[in-house]
Amino acid sequence: MSPKFAAPSATAIPLITVKSDDLDVTLANLPNAAASWLRNKGFNASIGAIEALPNADGTIKAVYAGIGAKGQSRVRFALAAAAAKLPAGTYTLDTMLTGPALDEAALGLLLTTYKFDRYKSGAAKDIVFVLPAGVDAERIEALAAGECLTRDLINTPASDMGPAELEEAAVALAKQHGANCTVIKGDDLLKQNHPLIHTVGRASPRTSRLIDLSWGTTGPKLTLVGKGVCFDTGGLNLKPGASMGLMKKDMGGAATVLGLAHMIMALKTPLQLRILIPAVENSVDGSAFRPGDVLTSRKGLTVEINNTDAEGRLVLADALALADEGKPDHIISMATLTGAARVAVGPDLAPFYTTDDAMARVLAQAAEETADPVWQMPFHDPYESMIEPQIADLDNAPSGGFAGSITAALFLRRFVTDTPYTHFDIYGWNPVAAPARPKGGAGMGARAILAALPEVLGL
After folding, report:
1. Which residues contact 104 (CB under 8 A, 6 or more apart)?
2. Three-class SS of residue 323?
3. Cys staple from 221: which of 11, 73, 328, 457, with CB 3.0 to 4.6 Å?
4. What letter does residue 132 receive in the DSSP assignment?
5. Contact 22, 68 (CB under 8 A)
6. Cα Rg for the chain, rounded, in angstroms?
7. In 3D, which of 47, 53, 40 has the Cα closest to residue 13?
8. For the CA atoms of 357, 146, 104, 107, what is the dihedral angle to 10 degrees?
9. Which CATH number fits domain 140-457: 3.40.50.1010, 3.40.190.10, 3.40.630.10, 3.40.50.300?
10. What number of CA atoms fall less than 13 Å from residue 203's CA on the CB side?
11. Per-residue pLDDT tens digits of the chain, which is 459 residues long
12. Which fold has domain 13-135?
């Protein structure tokens, strides 16, 4: 789905935001009957508080929505907490919010309308929001559409979202924006020197592939690489059932870069964009790769396999080597890569690593402005020895259990030689529903990246 704002309407119901520390002033400026109604209903303007003011005939005259106190930072998309409770109808935002706070509120309204109902019968509640004054509709709608694309791809079960279906999504996106999309499949991966991608996916009956989308002919070059493991059993190091339950989301990196790509292309960002997605399923049969195998990557580096469940970094390695050969101005990889990242920062923060100091600085500011939190992690060079086994150049799963996200990032960095590089180790999932973010698939870091690109790439 691609949520959009409606045109101004004389019949739209005002949705009026109220900060809790401005409540007394707001009530004092209302007619006595309206102020008494809100007081008697217990409206306190806390986050998520909502109260409808009726007309004499019982229809809704206006809706008051609480957004909490000034400077509150514990809840993103505060207005969306109230908007989710609205009855069906068309609403127009009446608010004193400006700048990034207004953009956040507007985006939250659109994201509130998101529903993943592909497998459900019955009509969803029809809520429409009029374009708020002072909002760049094109930009906010592009952000919402990119996020909804990411959510839809992650939420789709693996039975309907394998490598072929992920390719179809990329091809559809390319067609929508006039981009080019080529795909290398099956044994052609070996012929064109993508051995790790081929090896990881060879035990699955669903053919592995490398999706390569390009758009734009002028401006700086940006390459996005997304992990597209459409389902991860763990391979011969089979995951326990509880750990396998969410593995439809293991293509969350691919879903996120496709959502980000939509934002970039929809907004006609003046750059040359390339998307690389190694799309595989990590399955088990007699041809599955084994613990103890030593594999040779596209870059020529050898990798000792100490855990077949550390497959994401393998498919990314070949894609990153290809990306680096194109000599772009920046490479960004996004992957649901390690449980260690979740232990470190939880499900809400998108941890990132970067070799570019400017990217680190700009991302931090952009994340705050776009309500898209990120957190910098270190490429800690002393840990390099942890990814160097005795019999190969690299170890895909160092023993010891320490610094799992950092060692994975250091592993990936070995495949980017000449290019500024940023890596995101995301979760791609909301375990608990939150304002504008239902339980399920979630984009992480895309809006912050989009906002950082102008300064980082000199656009």
Report:
1. 76, 77, 370, 371
2. helix
3. 328
4. P
5. no
6. 24
7. 53
8. 170
9. 3.40.630.10
10. 20
11. 689 999 999 999 999 999 999 999 999 999 999 999 999 999 999 999 999 999 999 999 999 999 999 877 789 999 999 999 999 999 999 999 999 999 999 999 999 999 999 999 876 778 999 999 999 999 999 999 999 999 999 999 999 999 999 999 999 999 999 999 999 999 999 999 999 999 999 999 999 999 999 999 999 999 999 999 999 999 999 999 999 999 999 999 999 999 999 999 999 999 999 999 999 999 999 999 999 999 999 999 999 999 999 999 999 999 999 999 999 999 999 999 999 999 999 999 999 999 999 999 999 999 999 999 999 999 999 999 999 998 999 999 998 889 999 999 999 999 999 899 999 999 999 999 999 999 999 999 999 999 999 999 999
12. Leucine Aminopeptidase, subunit E; domain 1 (3.40.220)
- Domain ranges in the chain are 13-135, 140-457
pLDDT at 76: 95
Residues listed for the chain: 459
The set of residues, in sequence order, having a beta carbon less than 8 Å from that of 418 and lying 6+ positions away, is 324, 327
Instruction: Tell me the residue type at 263.
Output: M
The Cα–Cα gap between 110 and 129 comes to 7
Tokens (6 digits) for 168: 């179809």
Which are the catalytic amino acids? 239, 313
The pair of three-digit structure tokens given for residue 227, joined into one six-digit string: 């992990």
The encoded tokens of residue 287 equal 């041809």
Tokens of 285: 């049969």
